[in-house]
Structure formats: structure tokens, C-alpha cells
From TrEMBL:
Keywords: Aminotransferase, Transferase. Gene3D superfamilies: Type I PLP-dependent aspartate aminotransferase-like (Major domain). One of its GO terms (molecular function) is transaminase activity. This is Pyridoxal phosphate-dependent aminotransferase. InterPro entries: PyrdxlP-dep_Trfase, PyrdxlP-dep_Trfase_major.
Amino acid sequence: GSTSARAAIAEYYARHGYHVDIDRIGLTASTSEAYSWLFKLLCDSGDGVLVP
């Protein structure tokens, strides 16, 4: 996501008492893209994933 969008999200959380570094915010175009990133981060090649 763009720096300005991530900064706006960080500011939103700051107004609610939470510090979130913009470098730790990731924006995706869809939930499918988010799941793709998640599986790539957490799974190794050949792992099975059970989706209920």
C-alpha cells in the first residue's frame, strides 16, 4: 500500500491509543490476495492446508 494510506491507518490507531508502525501495515486489493500472502508466509512448499 502507499505510504500515505498506511500513515492514515497508523494515525487512526494512534487516536485509539495504539502505536502501529507504518512499516508493519500491509494493504491488499482483496481478501484472496491477503490469504495468498498469509499462506506464502506461514507455509512451506508441499504443506497441506485444511480450509473448512
